Amino acid sequence: MGITVGSVVGVSPAPLRLVVDDERAVRPRPGASVPVVESEAQLRSLLQGLAGVDAVGAEARAAKLATRSLKRETKRAAIDLALSMVDLTTLEGADTPGRVASLCAKARRPDPDEPDAPAVAAVCVYPDLVATARVHLAGSPVRVASVATAFPSGRASRAVKLLDVADAVAAGADEVDMVLDRGAFLSGRLGEVFDEVVAVREACGPAHLKVILEVGELVTYDNVRRASWLAMLAGADFIKTSTGKVAVNATLPTALVMLEAVRDFAESTGRLVGVKAAGGIRTTKEALRYLVVVNETAGSAWLDPTLFRFGASSLVNDLLLQRRKQRSGAYARPDRISLD
Amino acid sequence: MDERPASTLSALEYDPAPESAALARLRESYGLFIGGAFVEAHDGATFETINPATEEPLARVAQAGEADVAAAVAAARRAYDKVWRKTTGAQRSKYLFRIARLIQERSRELAVLESLDNGKPIRESRDLDVPLAAAHFFYYAGWADKLDHAGFGPDPRPLGVAGQIIPWNFPLLMAAWKLAPALAAGNTCVLKPAETTPLSALVLAEILQQAELPDGVVNILTGDGSTGAALVDAALDKVAFTGSTEVGKVILRRLAGRPTRLTLELGGKGANIVFDDAPLDEVVEGIVDGIFFNQGHVCCAGSRLLVQESIAEEVLHRLRRRVDQLRVGDPLDKNTDVGAINSAAQLEKIRELTAWGEREGATRYTSPCALPERGYWFAPTVFTDVAQTHRIAREEVFGPVLSVLTFRTPEEAVAKANNTTYGLACGVWSEKGSRTLWVAQRLRAGVVWANTYNRFDPASPFGGVRESGFGREGGRHGLEAYLDV
Fold first, then answer.
1. What stretches of B40-171 adopt beta strand conformation (E)?
2. CA distance B94 to B362
3. pLDDT tens, position by position, for chain B (485 residues)?
4. Cβ contacts of residue B402 below 8 Å, gap of 6+?
5. Which of A262, B141, B234, B450 is most buried when burial is the number of CB atoms within 10 A of its CB?
6. A28 part of contact set with chain B, CB < 8 Å
7. Which residue in B292, B309, B310 sits closest to B301, CA to CA?
């Protein structure tokens, strides 16, 4: 690994740093730094100056990478890696402390029969359940993530959104998943979107900030690329595809475009930003395809829970089933795996 | 809090994922396919076909001589006169649909066999060669009963017996490109696959038997250049050749003064033109697909990259990073991107031309990938500082070797792209539609791709101008080459 990043478990992440000791690592170019955004006009010209995305080509590239075949040791390692990257998520109106408690137990020890199965990266809940999750994850490396800023639509005033964030952080969230203001973005009020991310970043304090682009509402890959850069320039630690609450969530080509963005951003600024693919990823096969795209787009540095995550709930059980299959050679009965 | 163990995976080093060679159902020897039956050569001659990835022999194949050529042409003539010319379009269509479906049914076998014999990655033979071959039969099956509406007048007539000589870069696909339109139009055929890649055409012959295609409608003769020469000299109504410009010229001379129709699909030195507003990540993929697809053994390869000088550095930076990622090795491994060079002779030619590139002052960049010890391999290579005068900018390398040139204005891009004796294919990369069209109208090439490269579809005509040949394959236009119009 050519990268050192802030402690995974601590609550005060050190600035992400790039150490060049690996041939394959992304290297910042000479003089790399994060540009200071001073005006909306400057931000607009910066985003519009990004190279466009050809949809046909991006989808063809993703489809080609999806044909990679992971076998044997690679597959075993990739399944464990994917498991360690999951943000085990419950975001329902019907969530209760009991439901969160059982999810936390699952997060800490996903497969009770296989103690070496790694814990997941985080448990992701609504702000009012952060404290519950905190209690049930005490002493474990699993982080607590909370959605905030009037998730999933983001349709509330700035003040309400910031209170939502402050609430989650005060309750002990290590990570905050905010939603980008798609309405403002689509109507061209880029400065407003930028300022909001900056304000949320501040409100997060030591907590990591993931910015949800909601790619299903941005629709075009050009928008996805620009929104990715906007979020990164405003201080996002992660850019995340989706809320999981709209018709189109994470897709492989969208993740490809976002991974290209974090790679290019790292090269031009020296700052590493993570990517979280969320919504609709249910099978090991799909998850491994994402890892291949990570590996061959952003590079090996991103093959780490500090820089790539899956936002998912049912994915974990398929990973566990496939993990057992890799070890025993036979599929376990689904009842061997806990419900959640 | 306890410590999370460090990730054990610093990079996804893919374990080997080989397709089973047994799927190819290789036999020790293969005969000629004449009059619906497999026969030995008249004089019993055979030659060996080898696996270019290992240099191990795969099978012995009959070497067709003049007597075999005469027998095959006679069988095709008989089949034409007695059976095929009397069939209705709907009947021919039925056979073509059957062939297409049988190719799909035996697709894994064909893909593995093609990769063994040719050296191309299984991903390409599985995802491109074989599906496209089936698609061509499906496409022309649809035309067979609609020739009246193809724009060549009412009731257009077939030509008769066609001699078809195909190259080694896409053995099965080129066979499909040749046979499907010829059969749809009502001709009978004598097909000669390339010397180094005869096997998939012989499995296709089995498929023709399975499809119960009448005997003699298609005959397949394996052999070297002398077989091809004898075929060209036979009493044919039509010759269709895909291969080098050098051989194409010889055929053109030999057919001069004879009533035999001719179409030629020859070499190329395609320009891939990248403007400063192009979608850069897709450009990089397009450049890679343009020159490293099929080890660069593609007549329409984008072997000259013409990049606007203002973004050349950025494009090359991204291109090098991508070239380093290309996985070169075992063609049967599902994760291989670039396979083996098809033959020792071709490898020698690539080496000679790249040595010239260095001698003439171009800067060479070669992927640091490890190459297998045995077999014919050439690491993906990019030449920068290339001038229009260099041999690597003018001659077809037919290998994984890219020459990078720069331009300043659209006019200069067009002038440089057209400054070649060839004219098969070009690519234009720009997000500005008006510029793409302006450039495309001025390029002298049979095919111009916009924001993509090496895309093939049976509905789209393909062919060249100038020393890249004449005649079109694919689409409605492809019928014209086999109709008396």
1. 46-51, 56-62, 161-165
2. 55
3. 334 444 444 567 899 999 999 999 999 999 999 999 999 999 999 999 999 999 999 999 999 999 999 999 999 999 999 999 999 999 999 999 999 999 999 999 999 999 999 999 999 999 999 999 999 999 999 999 999 999 999 999 999 999 999 999 999 999 999 999 999 999 999 999 999 999 999 999 999 999 999 999 999 999 999 999 999 999 999 999 999 999 999 999 999 999 999 999 999 999 999 999 999 999 999 999 999 999 999 999 999 999 999 999 999 999 999 999 999 999 999 999 999 999 999 999 999 999 999 999 999 999 999 999 999 999 999 999 999 999 999 999 999 999 999 999 999 999 999 999 999 999 999 999 999 999 999 999 999 999 999 999 999 999 999 999 999 999 999 999 999 99
4. B287, B291, B302, B303, B304, B305, B381, B382, B383
5. A262
6. no
7. B292
Q: How far out from the chain centre does Cα A71 lie?
A: 26
Assess contact for A201 and A230: CB atoms under 8 A.
Answer: no
DSSP class of B297: -
This complex has an ipTM of 0.94
Contact yes or no for A70 and B279 at CB 8 A = no
CB atoms B334 and A69 under 8 Å: yes
The two three-digit tokens of residue B1, written as one number: 């809090």
Which residues of A are catalytic, by number? 177, 240, 276
Give the H/E segment covering residue A145.
strand A143-147
Q: How many residues does chain A have?
A: 340
B306's CB contacts (< 8 A; 6+ apart) are B271, B272, B273, B274, B405, B406, B407, B413, B416, B417
- The distance of B162 to chain A (nearest Cα, Å) reads 37
A208-239 as b/e, with b when 16 or more CB fall inside 10 Å?
bbbbbbbbbbbeebbbbbbbbbbbbbbbbbbb
* B264 beta partners: B241, B470
Distance CA B379, CA B401 (A): 9
Q: What SS3 state is found at B372?
A: coil
B1–chain A nearest CA distance, Å: 5
Mutual angle of helices B89-105 and B130-143, in 10-degree steps: 170
**Measured on CA atoms in the order A194, A197, A203, A205, is the torsion positive or negative?**
negative
- Give the number of A-B residue pairs with CB atoms closer than 8 Å: 107
Identify whether B265 is a catalytic site residue. yes
Instruction: Tell whether A116 lies on the interface with B, counting CB pairs under 8 A.
Output: no
Q: How far is CA B368 from the centre of its chain?
A: 27
Interface of A with B in 48-87 (CB under 8 A): 51-54, 56-58, 60-61, 67-75, 77-78, 80-81, 84
The first and second tokens of residue B240, run together, are 């269709």
Catalytic member of B189, B299, B300, B426: B299
- Do the chains contact at A71 and B16, CB–CB below 8 Å? yes
**Pair A101, A65: CB distance under 8 Å:** no
Q: Can you spell out the DSSP letters for A50-77?
A: SPP--HHHHHHHHHHHTT----HHHHHH
